[in-house]
């Protein structure tokens, strides 16, 4: 199945979105080459390809906060993965000690009649 | 704010995950260059950079299914965006006529005592 994915668009890599299966929270985005995807699908725990270290990297292998795969989908272009997981260990995915890596709000102008976000919301 | 994002890791692009604000469903992943991100943040509707057409592309500009930005976060590396949106129009984000682009289940071996997914689940 994974051989049908399109690794060509990004020089052998595809983005993989990791979502908490129980809450729907998006926890992180990593990249996978074909071996990383195969290890993930065969081992049942999320393994990325580290672009900076140039090696496979099973998330949580040192911290214990491994990402156990519960379901996996690809998209209409077959060039991205979406992974629903259960976080093991203390449940903190980000190395900064938060559940999700997406903790920093980015401010933006609002469209239509949407009120502007408060200073607290865009902190 | 967007100038603090790291566009260097991927030759001027960052992945952007689009999530339905009300359901938490991940709808699609696209790529943004700096102008696409600026247009998104200033205009309040999600604009990607199309790698195949080599141009900015405001999602839904022809179909009417635009993605109205409700909140935006970046991650700990500042090299990915997560966007919560409300889908306008008929709410179908994928050109195949589904709400999400992630409709194709990818089968995998299960870790630990997790039962194997049924044929229906991995359809």
Descriptive notes:
- The structure is a homodimer of 123-residue chains.
- The first copy, chain A, has a domain at 2-87: Ubiquitin-like (UB roll).
- A four-stranded mixed β-sheet of chain A has the order 2-1-6-5, covered by helices on one side.
- Residues 113-123 of chain A have low confidence and may be disordered.
- The radius of gyration of chain A is 16 Å and the shape is globular.
- The longest helix of chain A is centred in the N-terminal third of the chain and has 10 residues, at 34-43.
- In chain A, strand 5 and strand 6 form a beta hairpin.
- Chain A contains one helix and seven strands; from the N terminus they run ββαβββββ.
- By secondary structure, the first copy, chain A, is mainly beta.
- At the A-B interface, strand 1, strand 2, helix 1, strand 5 and strand 7 of A face strand 1, strand 2, helix 1, strand 5 and strand 7 of B.
């Amino acid at each position: 199945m994974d051989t049908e994915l399109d690794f060509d668009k990004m020089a052998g890599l595809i983005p993989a979105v990791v979502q908490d299966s129980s809450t729907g929270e998006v926890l992180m985005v990593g990249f996978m080459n074909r071996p990383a995807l195969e290890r993930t699908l065969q081992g049942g725990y999320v393994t990325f390809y580290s672009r900076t270290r140039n090696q496979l990297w099973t998330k949580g292998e040192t911290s214990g906060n491994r990402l156990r795969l519960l379901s996996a989908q690809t998209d209409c272009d077959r060039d991205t993965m979406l992974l629903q997981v259960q976080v093991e260990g203390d449940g903190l995915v980000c190395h900064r000690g938060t559940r999700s890596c997406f903790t920093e709000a980015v401010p933006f102008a609002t469209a239509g009649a949407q009120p502007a976000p408060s200073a607290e919301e865009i902190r």
